[in-house]
Amino acid sequence: MESDEFDPAHRQASYDVRFEWGPVGAAALSGCSYAVVVDVLSFTTSVTVAVERGIEVFPFRWRNARAKELAMRVGATLAVGRFEALAFEGRHVSLSPASLQRAGDLTKLVLPSPNGSTICDAIADDGAEVVAASLRNRHAVAAHLAREAWSRGRTSTVAVVAAGERWPDDTLRPCAEDLWGAGAVLAALVDLGVDGLSPEARMAERAFRAVAADLPDELRSCASGRELVNKGFADDVDVAAGLDDTDVVPLLRDGSFTAAPS
What we know:
This protein is α/β, with parallel strands linked by helices. Helices cover 44% and strands 17% of the residues. The protein has one domain: ComB-like (putative 2-phosphosulfolactate phosphatase, Alpha-Beta Complex), CATH 3.90.1560. It has helices at residues 22-28, 43-52, 65-74, 82-87, 97-102, 116-126, 138-150, 176-191, 199-211, 215-221, 223-230, 234-240; strands at residues 17-21, 34-38, 56-60, 77-78, 108-112, 129-133, 158-162, 165-166, 172-173, 250-253, 256-259. The strands form three sheets. It has a six-stranded mixed β-sheet, with helices on both faces. It has a three-stranded parallel β-sheet with strand order 3-5-4, sandwiched between helices. A two-stranded antiparallel ribbon has the order 8-9. Strand 10 and strand 11 (256-259) form a beta hairpin. Helix 7 packs across helix 8 (176-191) and helix 8 crosses helix 9 (199-211).
């Protein structure tokens, strides 16, 4: 969708810091200087873990022939599905952040994800600087934004986009973990003295603060967390719950995520 198809009020244009859901929400917030994409279980957590290890990550929507072609062209490893990785006894990496922590030597990775990567590509095409955020690096992301977007008297606009999940009919399923992840970044921005949050952004901030003291348990208990635990991927939930475990800030530049200069 084009930005002029949205009611102006829905674009939250009166505020410097905005929050929305999914690809359509990202389109509604187009035109911001910076965009933070949050997909806690598990795309942006996996990107954070990979970039922390020095791996260049190429996001891709689907694991298909085009993804294989991209991997061959850039000399990257193509991540497999979670269950496929299990079948190979952990010898392949997947969207699982725990598998990325255990992986051997990797320098480049094509990481398919139908939710987070789709949003990243769309926002990048709009010209915004795209940052991958998770609970693991939320303070580092906020500090990067505070330094880059509001330093030296500048005033910039920031869109924080929760990726969400999909229902079986392919409609957006807003999910607790992405609300909390987005809220975690927003709470860190507020703690650093940033104001100008929209009511939608304030809502996400407060949602995070409400669960922050019990975050690991809450993450395991939410619908997406239970889904992964029940399927044998509890380690992924635990990795995702590591609040402020890293200072890495993955930036999307020329089609791949690498670490922002510190």
